[in-house]
């Protein structure tokens, strides 16, 4: 994955507000300082990734039919991960995000319609990010600070909208291609082979074959001395708009 282009501080031109799409009830327009940063979930003990071998598992495209099963596995193992969710799926599966949040997982934006943001207008990019962001805030009480652009497709225009919406862009540096190879043994092997300090590992909790790989992945991580953390625990404070692929020192 190419390193992040440093984003210029020159702001984008004025962006038309989203059309009056049906808005989520009770959402607040302004983002105030009262918004808590992500990654400080209740009961989460602080992990110092300067001292420990940390890596982050991330799960995209949900929540889906297997997400609750995954949450049970993670809860039993007392492991926290990061979910990058699609707005309509979160709204359909009411309660899953709140549950994940209560368990200390981090929730980030994977947009409304899972489109290549680089192909959209500035105002459409804004809308794709913003509505999912609001859904996450409504369902968890916490404003997300992370965006995973679908397909990892980004450019300076996407970065500008991400910066406006105060979300950092989180790509990955380990990809087991679990969406293509729906084989639990293959996915398990590739994820474990990709373990390294500072890794951000891409998976998809909408595939039962991937969810089934997680127990062995967790065991291997523990055996190899890794501490599994959320993306914000791994990266610390992230800069809105900036692209991160890992936390290699
Ligand atoms: Ni995706």
Compact description:
With 249 residues, this protein is an alpha/beta fold. It is built from 8 helices and 8 strands.
Q: Can you offer a commentary on this structure?
A:
The chain has 249 residues and is α/β, with parallel strands linked by helices. It is 33% helix and 12% strand. The chain is built from 8 helices and 8 strands. It has helices at 67-77, 87-92, 96-102, 122-140, 156-164, 184-193, 208-223, 231-235, and strands at 53-60, 82-85, 106-109, 146-147, 168-170, 200-204, 226-228, 243-244. Strands 1, 2, 3, 6 and 7 form a 5-stranded parallel β-sheet that branches. It has a 3-stranded parallel β-sheet with strand order 4-5-8, with helices on one face. Helix 1 links the parallel strand 1 (53-60) and strand 2. Helix 1 (67-77) packs parallel to helix 7 (208-223) and helix 6 packs parallel to helix 7 (208-223). The longest helix has 19 residues, at 122-140. It is globular and about 45 Å long. Residues 1-43 have low confidence and may be disordered. Bound molecules: nickel (II) ion. Nickel (II) ion binds next to loops.
């Amino acid at each position: 994955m190419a390193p992040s282009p440093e984003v210029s501080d020159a702001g984008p031109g004025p962006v038309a507000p989203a059309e009056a799409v049906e808005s989520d009830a009770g959402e607040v327009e302004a983002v105030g300082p009262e918004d808590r940063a992500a990654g400080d979930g209740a009961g989460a003990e602080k992990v110092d990734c300067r001292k420990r071998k940390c890596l982050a598992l991330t799960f995209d495209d949900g929540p889906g039919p297997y997400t609750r099963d995954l949450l049970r596995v993670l809860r039993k193992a007392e492991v926290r991960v990061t979910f990058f969710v699609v707005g309509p799926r979160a709204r359909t599966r009411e309660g899953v995000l709140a549950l994940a949040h209560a368990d200390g997982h981090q929730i980030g934006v994977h947009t409304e319609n899972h489109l290549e943001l680089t192909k959209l207008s500035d105002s459409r990019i804004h809308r794709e990010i913003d509505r999912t962001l609001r859904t996450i805030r409504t369902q968890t009480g916490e404003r997300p600070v992370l965006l995973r652009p679908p397909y990892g497709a980004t450019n300076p225009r996407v970065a500008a909208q991400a910066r406006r919406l105060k979300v950092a862009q989180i790509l990955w540096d380990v990809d087991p291609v679990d969406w293509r190879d729906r084989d639990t043994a293959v996915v398990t092997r590739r994820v474990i082979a990709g373990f390294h300090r500072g890794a951000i590992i891409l998976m998809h909790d909408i595939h039962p074959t991937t969810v089934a790989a997680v127990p062995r992945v967790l065991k291997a991580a523990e055996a190899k001395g890794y501490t599994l953390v959320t993306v914000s625990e791994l990266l610390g404070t992230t800069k809105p708009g900036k692209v991160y692929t890992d936390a290699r020192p």
